Automatic annotation (TrEMBL):
GO terms for molecular function: oligopeptidase activity; serine-type endopeptidase activity. InterPro entries: AB_hydrolase_fold, Peptidase_S9_cat, Peptidase_S9A, Prolyl_oligopep/macrocyclase. This is prolyl oligopeptidase. GO terms for biological process: proteolysis. It catalyses: Hydrolysis of Pro-|-Xaa >> Ala-|-Xaa in oligopeptides. It is an enzyme of class 3 (hydrolase). GO terms for cellular component: cytosol. SUPFAM superfamilies: alpha/beta-Hydrolases, Peptidase/esterase 'gauge' domain.
Length: 598
């Protein structure tokens, strides 16, 4: 191992010692403890219930807290089975014939049995924990069934194609309404809080009826009367999480490129604040939840390891500077795009340095997903070794509401790549980095954006990295979930849309390059246990760039997938990316600096 790689390896190992706790659920936490490589179930006092081999996706404690239903997978491929943990004995009993993939468990009030949708086999399963008896009912062929808490026996959300999702009380049979895209339902007093793609609705849960009768779209009755208790919607905010706390609904949202907490009382906004702040880091609140009457926030930043904070009063939670690793600072930069729109990028850099610095610029920009500054061990490791790390917010993502998302979607997807070009140029013009010091990086859809930018603008960067990226936009259906991505890239099957995709597709661009073309160095990463994106596109990208005379290498992250991964599996992946970036920028930093002191 070279001295450079060894230094990065040590720095990365130090950063990986920090754990990643989850929110308490029924007195238990699913998370990775400090110094551990995999997730386990822990009590609030820090003691461990169980830390099994494999991967724990979700937990559902029984009402009496004696058992914990878990979604457990043997590998990182996201395909799981039901397991039951004895909370006192710390043992795990698997039910391999109940096959799950991010499914919800509903316990009976007496904790003797549970219901779960085994979505991999399209069955609704009832498991009696006393007798071990199982009862299974087949689901409708084209319908999706989800279960949520609420009422006496829970709520049933049945989605069927263009009809949207109908929400029904399982105990009374009362229909609560139908929504085009329902995300979650939860109890709200005697009613139900519905989180859907357009906002929040509070609907009553009284009376009885039959499935699909009584209520129509979004809580309206058959006559069209609006029976909702209240509705809330903000087109400029993306809801990330929702919790009911005392007399109010607390909304965690992303607005103006940062996370905010919004307090609602009877559907009226009474407060909106930045959830957490730090004098030297950009903090992001990733989750909120109420357990045993206490509202907690999950907070982290590029240099701030994930932690749980209790919201004791309604205000911004300030994380003291001493809690932040003294490795550097994170600064928000606003850069004007070529069409005048302001773009945001957060740059984390070593203390007491000035540019130009070696810079890893990451991106996403799709599916309405916000790309926020978070703690990822490669960030402090890279900064500790003198580099800078940046998080770009691009149109198509979820940082600034619905209009921002639509501006980088479908036939406007080229705008996402153009935004990355503008941010890269803005950082170069500001003296933060130089083209020979800049490496673009993106995972999944972000890899498409990074590759599209680097191939179309080879003078902009020294190299680019893609991880698990569907780089061939002309054949998205070849991927297991690819049919769901076509609308994001504007593929409606017409000749015009295919021409648009050909111009946008990084692989099509790469295969059209002439021999001797200027090409930034490329690292293509594929995940060994990926069930969403096939490796073929990355293999073809490497081959195409090599044919044109470029430097391109392929690397497989064994044991890693699109789902929950052990930190040990991610260590080599992170180290490979950092070493690639350092290799490209080492000669240039010899001339300038790997972080020149002010």
């Amino acid at each position: 191992m070279s001295a450079r790689r060894s230094a990065l390896d040590d720095a990365l190992a130090r950063a990986e010692r920090h754990g990643r706790p989850g929110l308490p659920v029924g007195g238990f936490i699913l998370g990775r403890a400090d110094g551990r490589s995999r997730r386990g179930i822990h009590r609030l006092d820090g003691t461990t219930v169980i830390e099994p081999d494999g991967h724990l996706h979700r937990i559902f404690p029984s009402p009496d807290r004696r058992r914990i239903a878990v979604e457990w997978a043997p590998t990182a491929d996201e395909n799981a089975v039901l397991g039951i943990v004895d909370a006192h004995g710390g043992t795990l009993q698997l039910h391999p014939d109940i096959r799950l993939r991010y499914d919800t468990v509903l316990w009976a009030p007496d904790s003797r049995s549970l219901d779960v949708v085994a979505s991999r086999d399209r069955m609704l399963v009832t498991l009696d924990l006393q007798t071990g008896e199982q009862r299974a009912a087949a689901l409708e062929a084209d319908a999706r069934l989800r279960l949520f808490p609420g009422g006496e026996r829970g709520l049933r959300a049945l989605s069927s194609g263009s009809r949207g999702t109908t929400l029904t009380d399982r105990g009374t049979g009362a229909s609560l309404g139908r929504w085009p895209a329902l995300l979650r339902a939860s109890p709200l007093g005697t009613g139900v809080l519905v989180w859907h793609d357009r906002g929040l609705d509070a609907v009553p849960n009284v009376g009885a009826g039959t499935d699909g009768a009584g209520k129509d779209d979004a809580g309206k009755d058959a006559a069209g009367k609006d029976d909702a208790l209240w509705r809330w919607h903000d087109p400029d905010a993306l809801i990330v999480d929702v919790a009911v706390h005392d007399d109010r609904v607390v909304v965690l949202a992303v607005a103006d490129g940062r996370s905010v907490l919004i307090d609602l009382v009877d559907g009226v906004e009474v407060a909106r604040i930045e959830a957490a702040s730090s004098p030297s880091d950009a903090l992001t609140t990733t989750m909120i939840g109420v357990d045993d009457g206490v509202l907690r926030l999950g907070v982290e930043g590029p240099l701030t390891p994930p932690r749980l904070l209790q919201r004791e009063r309604r205000g911004t939670v300030v994380v003291p500077a001493a809690a932040v690793r003294p490795l550097g600072t994170t600064v928000r930069h606003d850069i004007r795009a070529d069409d005048g729109v302001i773009l945001t990028v957060h740059v984390t850099s070593p203390p007491g340095t000035e540019g130009p610095l070696p810079l890893i610029l990451t991106c996403y920009g799709g599916f309405g997903v916000p790309h926020l500054p978070l703690f990822e061990p490669t960030v402090p490791a890279w900064v500790e070794c003198g580099g800078a790390y940046a998080v770009a917010q691009l149109r198509g993502g979820g940082e600034r509401g619905a209009a921002w998302r639509e501006a980088g979607r479908g036939r406007s997807k080229h705008r996402t790549i153009a935004d990355l070009v503008d941010i890269a140029r803005g950082l170069i013009e500001a003296g933060i980095t130089r083209p020979d010091l800049l490496v673009l990086a993106g995972a999944s859809l972000g890899g498409v954006v990074a590759a599209g930018c680097a191939i179309a603008h080879p003078d902009l960067c020294a190299g680019f990295v893609t991880t698990a990226a569907p780089l061939d936009l002309l054949h998205l259906d070849d991927h297991p979930l690819g049919a769901r991505w076509r609308a994001e890239f504007g593929d409606d099957g017409t000749r015009e849309s295919r021409a648009h995709l050909r111009a946008l597709s990084p692989l099509a661009q790469a295969e059209a390059l002439p021999a001797g073309a200027r090409i930034p160095s490329y690292l293509g990463v594929v995940l060994g246990e990926d069930t969403r994106v096939r490796a073929r596109d990355t293999h073809r990208m490497v081959e195409a760039l090599r044919r044109a005379g470029g430097s391109a290498r392929l690397w497989t992250a064994s044991g890693a997938g699109h789902g929950a991964n052990e930190s040990a599996a991610l260590h080599e992946l992170g180290l490979t990316v950092l070493d690639f970036a350092a290799e490209l920028t080492t000669e240039s930093t010899t001339e300038s600096t790997m972080g020149r002191a002010r």
